[in-house]
Amino acid sequence: MNYKSIAVLVVLICLIFSIPVMAATKLTKIEDGKVTKMDDGTLAKVDHWQNTFPMEITAPVHGDAWPPSSKYKITWIYDEKRFNSDTVKILLLKGGKVAQTISAYNVIGMNGKGEAPPNNFDMVPPGNDYQIKIVGLDSHTKNETNQYAISAYFTILAERKVQITAPYNAQVFYLGENIPISWNYAGDIGKTLQLHLFNFKATPQIARDINLAAPTGNSGHGSYDWQIPNDLPTGSYQISIEGNDQYVYHAVSEFTIAKYKAVVITPGTIHIPKPGEKFELNPQPEPPEKIKH
Question: Cβ–Cβ contacts within 10 Å for residue 33, how many?
């Protein structure tokens, strides 16, 4: 083999091995796709659904932490050409096993997007090993198909509650008095709470910030004493307690603030003077007798 033949062979070999690289480069022209790392280390944009199941759960995502009593939407996107079901079953997994059926029959969605009605998870224990699984259902039999999607792991928190124990409803307080505010709580609700005084109206508004960083308390119980300002308008009010972290715990107690304290007069406790009788509103005590020397 002469030198010319060897040179031609080398050129042919280079052309053969350059074909995959060229094909990878062409993938960058795809508009609706993801950027991914190719085997040769280059970045290329590939079809969103290439080599994947034709569905992806977009909520929850990794790192989400959901309080059980809060309602959250489960959302997903899907390939209308490749996903063969009009309806899906939605499951809650814990540790890879079914913990709850969220929806036995849910419409897949429209225009490649779907969602389930807001759900809460107050009947399951807390944990960080939860996932959502969405399974396609056969259009005729309604049995599960082999098309499904599973979300990333997310956390369901322990139940968090705040309940006001004082003041209780229908209590009456007066300007200048102290109001003992107390509450019970459950779960990790943070180290401090916000205490607000609300006007009791059709649309309540904050009348005063009582304390924006009141200590939560200990062993499920907390308290705070607040003196009613003398310049506060009288009327019906509410105490509101809210959390200082990213979750809100709202509890309300309704009561009344009055200007003067009512005096209850019992019959027979007031002496009414007779005609001609001297009557002093504030009788002075008799002076003490002089000490005889």
Answer: 16
pLDDT for the residue 283: 53
- This prediction's pTM: 0.49
CA distance 57 to 88: 13
| Structural domain boundaries in the chain | 55-156, 161-258
Token pair for 114: 């779907």
Question: Which residues lie below 8 Å from residue 42, measured CB to CB, with a gap of 6+?
Answer: 21, 24, 25
CATH of region 161-258: 2.60.40.2950
Q: d(Cα 251, Cα 168) in Å, to the nearest integer?
A: 12
Q: What is the pLDDT of residues 26-70, one digit of tens each?
A: 332 223 344 444 444 444 444 444 445 689 999 999 989 887 767
Rounded-to-10 torsion of CA 262, 237, 164, 124: 150
Pick the CATH number of 55-156 from 2.60.40.10, 3.90.180.10, 3.40.50.11810, 3.30.70.2740: 2.60.40.10
